[in-house]
Amino acid sequence: MNNYRTIIESFEGFVEQHPVLQTFTWGDLSDVGRDNNKIKYPILHVIPQPSTLEKTYTDFVFNMIIGDMLNEDESNQLDVLKTSHLILQDFSAYYINQLTDNTFQLLTPITFSPFLDRLDDVLCGVESTITIRVEASFCL
């Protein structure tokens, strides 16, 4: 059965097989980097949001942040935005083309916007809202 655990583990699996992404985290943004491990960038971070339970499916909603470090002079900002957008495209292709063993689907369209300056590091990238639909029969 698909639930938060299987969905988040699937996101982690995507990051592990992606050739550019280095770190996957989830939860409150304020908790990122609080453990003793230094964050390796680029990062994909998801934050669970209020979700919807319907008669035949559940929609799990997440805010997703894909970001990388900027140079001190921030001269690579456009390059980081481009790479973050390409990673978002890879993510959507991974789930839309069902390159995973999971039985849930990524709903489209995906709304995203650029950001600058998050976390303790000077970070740049894209933030998006994604919805994962899990079909269910809810039989007892």
Structural class assignment: alpha+beta
Approximately how much helix is present in the residues?
10-25%
Strand residue percentage:
35-45%
Number of helices: 2
- CATH architecture name: 2-Layer Sandwich
User: According to CATH, what is the class?
Assistant: Alpha Beta
How many extended strands?
6
Taken together, the total number of domains comes to 1
If you had to describe this structure to a student in words, what would you say it looks like?
The protein is α+β, with helices and mostly antiparallel strands. It has one domain (4-135): 2-Layer Sandwich (STM4215-like). Helices cover 24% and strands 35% of the residues. It contains 2 helices and 6 strands; from the N terminus they run H-E-E-E-H-E-E-E. The protein has helices spanning 4-17, 77-96, and strands at residues 23-26, 43-53, 57-69, 105-106, 111-116, 123-135. Strands 1, 2, 3, 4, 5 and 6 form a 6-stranded mixed β-sheet that branches. It is elongated and about 55 Å long.
Please summarize what this structure is.
The chain is an alpha+beta fold.
Topology of this structure?
Elements: H1 4-17, E1 23-26, E2 43-53, E3 57-69, H2 77-96, E4 105-106, E5 111-116, E6 123-135
Parallel strand pairs: 1-2
Antiparallel strand pairs: 2-3, 3-6, 4-6, 5-6
